[in-house]
Amino acid sequence: MSLSLCKVRLQEERKQWRKDHPFGFYARPKKTADGTLDLTRWDAGIPGKSNSLWAEATYPVTITFSDEYPSKPPKVMFPPGFWHPNVYPSGTVCLSILNESQDWRPAITLKQIVLGIQELLTNPNPDSPAQEPAWKAFSKDRATYEKKVKEQAKKYANAT
Amino acid sequence: MEEVPQETQVIPDFQENVLSYFPIYSSLRVNTDFTHTQLQRDIDDKISKTKQLSDDFINEIADMSPIPLLELCREFLESQTESYTKLVETKFRLQTLQTALRHAHSSVVDTRRLEDDLTLENYIQYCELTKENFADAIIADVETKIYSEQGCSTILKADSWYQYIRNCYFVLEHPEDPLPDDQVDEELAVEGGKISLKDPFSLNYFVEPLMAISCKHVFEKEHIMGEFRDSPRTKCPITGCVAELTKKDLRPDLLMQLRVRVHKAREKNKSQSRATRLQ
Known about the structure:
The complex is a heterodimer of chains A (about 160) and B (about 280). With about 160 residues, chain A is α+β, with helices and mostly antiparallel strands. Chain A has helices at about 5-20, 110-120, 130-140, 140-155; strands at about 25-30, 35-45, 60-65, 75. In chain A, strand 1 and strand 2 (about 35-45) form a beta hairpin. In chain A, helix 3 (about 130-140) packs across helix 4 (about 140-155). Chain B is built from 9 helices and 7 strands, in the order H-H-H-H-H-H-H-E-E-E-E-H-E-E-E-H. In chain B, helix 6 (about 160-175) packs parallel to helix 9. The N and C termini of chain B lie far apart (about 120 Å). The interface of A and B includes residues 9, 13, 16, 70 and 71 of A.
């Protein structure tokens, strides 16, 4: 039997990422218990844009691909409790390009996904709240919001 | 023997009254059959031979890198394109004539039923009739269709093999470049001015590429067909493209297939010469 489309695509995504990826980002498949790579589960790091509240830190996400990828989008998760208006309490990212019934297309690459999330960090979408605290603060109490973002940035600060 | 009453025979003045329209005599057999089966078969045969010869030729040279005698290849492919164009034009003209004659047939039959044969008695009546003769009508019909050239250029534009052979040489020389002066290709996935030779699903080189006729995006057959498993239509898999696709919208993309072949042959050649240099 030939390799499934999902596996073929993920191998190619890995090859392309290793060949070239945006500065400051990382993405690698997780290792399974027996030491082999699990191409369907990746660890990735999204650097905050410089000159933003999110700067100088790299935020960890896990990206999970189902067998139906790339027909269906992968699921991207920050650590639970991540502070951002468009991140669910579970850590799941709410982003139109990651939603099958919205803007997901099979042609969207891993690189485009992580760049999309980086963009979302600094530009939250107030129309699709995913958690109460960060969304409320973002829309009504900008000072608290910014303080929390900066605290979180310290937590994930880049090693100097 | 009965005597013919002389007073009823009125001879019209032929110099004063000139007939411009001639009704068709009811006793005349109307034959507008212009099927010319043999001629049609000959044209189709020549078309398929031209295709076969060109396909064989391209097959021979596509995997060669570098391609030998480039200038001769170009001349050959250009002449094949020209022959094909002429054959398609001829076929189109023949068909136009056949259609015109078929149309004429029914109108001849209908009109003849309504019109009396021309006699001395009704000659003057017919003189007053200003109507186009059948032969003139047929000629006019055929001429407008053929000489407008609209018909044939539309046919060629939609002819995928014509588009293929016409652009073959360019692709042999520049497998990754968009076709010159072609709006079609501006829509293709272009990275750094190059055309992507890889399927957007698997990110692997195309094997059996299909092009969507509406948005011109290209996909690997196996993978785009997978999108129709649950639904007869799907959004175009390319980011930002608003086209909705069905299976019927997809056509084999011969040119893309050739691009991949030529590109792969070049890559192979490059890595081989690199290997020789290292030795």
